[in-house]
């Protein structure tokens, strides 16, 4: 583990970051560049630095030693900057076109200097504007298969996997996920956040012992199953897109966990968007975008499943891993976990601390309540049916049943 | 991770270890002590140092940078001395009477100075001499429950468990287990070692695709399920006993893995001893020792199960973990894993590199072959029946069926 020398660290300003970049030789003349901090300042600073003469730009991301949540300050290790940077570098080995390029870094300052993606938009935002991105399932399915396979025991063998896993022990950030995804939404916790008119649905969930027990099992898996290096927070806000390009960003929650967690996070966020689309005011392309979302859920899994199997059969470390029987076993477990974690991720976005604009932005109050109730119900179905729904068709059939 | 400064390290001699101890202030006058190296020299040096005036003694254990196996040298990280020492210190927090006391250590020299247990005998040896140890199940059941619970997520919570797990990443030693327990016995590997007259049984095992697939699943669990801090090599050769005292030694294979692995290792070695007893020449106390072994298998689990449940219900980190429903779930998984791993541990001792005196020491060739075949068959049954045999009674009933 790299220890951040905290006495060196200080948060940059728009001015001091340029002094730093000049010293590092990353810009030649700080008088000829513009610099703008564009992060939300809750967890990180994000400076966009643009050279006025060449028009080239770069991003400087710096971790802050706390997270501002619900008005309070939650201390967070600066080491997460190293984890995020190394996770980006790991991903770049396998899918260099699907992550921002890392140009430089400095663990003492908790800083990563990387590709500016200002020409991209956040996928969540793009979907809410009614845009369809034709390559998303191909790109995210490939991203998932390449990363989740290539960091696994089956790819790396006994020594390298453990060395890599040790680099990605991430207690602080895992603690956030454990609290906000697996614990707090299932009890009357201070961090929860939901509208008054959802009180009844929420209390009924807190009394659902069967559900709470299933979530406890999923949490135990999250805590103990170090299968592969995860992104750790792969919602549609962690994906930058253009019509042609997809870039997965912000892997600061990266750690060795169960593969289905990343896939589940992505599918949950498509599911939330789908549920929201049924209630949103713009009916003109509701059918088109609904079909697109269901197709994207199915295809993301299909692309993942096909590529993961190819990689395992081709590059599996041991002969007995390079068999369809073993691949079936591994992929069936990943699929079940995907559904279970997708369920948890869906519910937490309604009851827990961090919401999504997809749902919260529904203007009509009745529609919003309906979407919230449906999201909770869908999350429950995903969790209960994780060993019953054998393919994405089961989930998309369920979602079709909710369509307007 | 502590890095051993390899330029400082050198293997001690019976002379130089005394110079070292004197410098450290652990002995006052090296002219007044005796020193004898008693290790087998394959992995570690073990020096017994005795003060002639006070009659007090201590053990200096030093890791060697290689393992001598089948005449070859297998390089091994010296860091395992730190891992072993820290595992002893962790265990001493919960069961100080069941492990040797650590007096001092020096990671640069890969050295631990600890309690001398020369008045104890190795449990395997004691059992082969026909001795019964009345406290073994109470002691080992307690050792297992306290250690396996107290290092788990349920005991330590989200932050501490991950920090501890990072200290016990143990690639080199896990690699040995993965090869010798889960891989090589199931294929025609150079490391295997078995008598010619077992060739047929061994080849039939290599063709048992169903078994090989189940072992691949168990290996995946061993690789990915970081439930708790294991001893990692808890056979009857890692237990020192007297009539009254039990001390678990040599946890250099310690790492975060599935809890059932340790319990399985212990039960497998009692099982091997039981199978061997049926063929050994001394019939005088065969019934008595057979009954004792079956009772010990049942009671070790019973003591473990009861104490683990108490600890979970009393000290579980979250309210929802402090329920019988959750305890049932966790303990049922541990039990299934115990059986599966016990099966692998039984088979490897017949076909793989490292054998046990219990079986190999059977003088009658026919009896020895019978025991070897039965051990393989028992291992297979343990693996196949791990979700069918609901309690130790199923295993002991099976073993009773083998009795003479």
Automatic annotation (TrEMBL), chains A, B:
Any GO MF annotation of the entry: S-methyl-5-thioribose kinase activity
One family name in Pfam for this protein: APH
Nucleotide-binding keyword on record: yes
Signal sequence extent: none
Pathway in which this enzyme or protein is active: Amino-acid biosynthesis; L-methionine biosynthesis via salvage pathway; S-methyl-5-thio-alpha-D-ribose 1-phosphate from S-methyl-5'-thioadenosine (hydrolase route): step 2/2
Domain Aminoglycoside phosphotransferase: 34-287
Chain segments annotated as coiled-coil in the UniProt record: none
Keyword S-adenosyl-L-methionine: no
EC number(s) on file: 2.7.1.100
Keywords, in A-Z order: Amino-acid biosynthesis, ATP-binding, Kinase, Methionine biosynthesis, Nucleotide-binding, Transferase
SUPFAM superfamilies attached to this UniProt entry: Protein kinase-like (PK-like)
Binding site for substrate: 233, 348
Positions that bind ATP: 44, 61, 115-117, 250-252
Superkingdom: Bacteria
HAMAP family membership: Salvage_MtnK
Protein task: Catalyzes the phosphorylation of methylthioribose into methylthioribose-1-phosphate.
Subunit structure: Homodimer.
Family label: Belongs to the methylthioribose kinase family.
Name of this protein: Methylthioribose kinase
Organism: Jeotgalibacillus haloalkalitolerans
Lineage: Bacteria, Bacillati, Bacillota, Bacilli, Bacillales
Gene name for this UniProt entry: mtnK
């Amino acid at each position: 583990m790299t220890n951040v020398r905290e006495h060196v660290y200080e948060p940059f300003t728009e001015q001091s970051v340029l002094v730093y970049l000049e010293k590092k030789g990353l810009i030649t003349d700080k008088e000829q560049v513009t610099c703008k901090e564009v992060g939300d300042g809750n967890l990180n600073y994000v400076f966009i630095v643009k050279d006025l003469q060449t028009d080239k730009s770069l991003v400087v991301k710096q971790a802050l030693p706390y997270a501002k949540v619900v008005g309070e300050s939650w201390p967070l290790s600066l080491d997460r900057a190293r984890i995020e940077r190394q996770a980006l570098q790991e991903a770049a080995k396998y899918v260099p076109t699907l992550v921002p390029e890392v140009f430089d870094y400095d663990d003492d300052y908790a800083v990563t200097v990387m590709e500016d993606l200002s020409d991209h938009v956040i996928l969540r935002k793009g979907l809410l504007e009614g845009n369809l991105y034709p390559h998303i399932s191909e790109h995210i399915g490939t991203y998932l298969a390449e990363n989740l396979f290539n960091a696994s025991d089956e790819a790396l063998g006994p020594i390298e996997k453990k060395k890599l896993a040790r680099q990605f022990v991430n207690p602080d950030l895992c603690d956030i996920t454990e609290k906000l995804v697996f614990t707090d939404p299932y009890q009357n916790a201070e961090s929860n956040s939901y509208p008054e008119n959802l009180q009844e649905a929420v209390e009924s969930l807190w009394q659902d012992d069967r559900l709470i027990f299933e979530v406890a099992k999923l949490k135990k898996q999250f805590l103990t199953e170090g299968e592969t290096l995860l992104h750790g927070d792969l919602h549609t806000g962690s994906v930058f897109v253009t019509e042609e390009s997809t870039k997965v960003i912000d892997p600061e929650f990266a750690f060795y966990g169960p593969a289905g967690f990343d896939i589940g996070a992505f599918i949950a966020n498509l599911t939330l968007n789908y549920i929201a689309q049924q209630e949103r005011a713009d009916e003109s392309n509701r059918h088109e975008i609904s079909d697109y979302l269901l197709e994207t859920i199915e295809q993301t899994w299909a692309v993942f499943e096909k590529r993961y199997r190819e990689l395992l059969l081709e590059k599996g470390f041991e002969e007995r891993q390079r068999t369809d029987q073993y691949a079936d076993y591994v992929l069936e477990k990943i699929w079940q976990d995907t559904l279970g974690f997708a369920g948890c991720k869906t519910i937490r976005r309604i009851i827990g601390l961090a919401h999504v604009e997809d749902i919260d932005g529904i203007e009509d109050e009745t529609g919003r309540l309906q979407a919230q109730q449906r999201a909770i119900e869908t999350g429950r179905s995903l969790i209960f049916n994780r060993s019953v729904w054998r393919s994405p068709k089961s989930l998309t059939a369920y979602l079709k049943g909710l369509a307007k």
